[in-house]
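Hi W., the 2'-deoxycytidine-5'-monophosphate complex you wanted:
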Amino acid sequence: MIFTVAIDGPAAAGKGTISKAVATHFGFPHLDTGLLYRATGRRVLAGEEPVAAAQGLRPEDLDRDDLRTAEVAQAASRVAAVPEVRAALIAFQRAFARREGGAVLDGRDIGTVICPDAEVKLYVTASDEVRAARRYLELSAKGAATSPAEVLDDLRARDARDAGRDTAPMKPAPDALLLDTTNLSIEAAVEEAVRAVKQKLEQGRR
Ligand code: DC
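Structure:
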């Protein structure tokens, strides 16, 4: 069975948590596509040129434990605006999306560019303030020296770049189900996502 769940949306809206929960629930493998851009951005911060960094990405680059910093997030967003960087990462993502047995991918352009034929498309959002508060908690729990205002500025700068670029900008696919998690618990958001996937799987069986 080929069955792709595409989960897009801005930073810290809850995509990652929802994707992992959906993947676990249905036994689908999960790809956090942001990691590909973060790993590329990390290599650029170390001195490499963006396109070469993306083309030379190795599996172990994705296992690094320093990909979740604010600095790497901004570097990821910058390299993600380079069309040749995106092109270098497309084939891997498409193959993952259409592999036998189903797949969940989360990112910014999964439902629009990587897999426009995805069986389920979700676009997860939340207010800027709620997203910044969540990301601040995450970063400060890891010991990062930052402030809620700085995190909010960072998120807004990244969203503006991700939504404003010419190639594969962040936006909902026309047929995406919108999931606003501003006032939704994680459990409720996951439940809604699971319901959407179940419904589609059942339709396919009829
Ligand atoms: O999901 P994330 O915050 O880890 O993503 C980091 C950056 O990578 C994000 O700011 C934009 C870019 N990205 C992208 O352009 N397309 C994707 N499918 C995933 C991430």
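The longest helix spans residues 186-205.

W.
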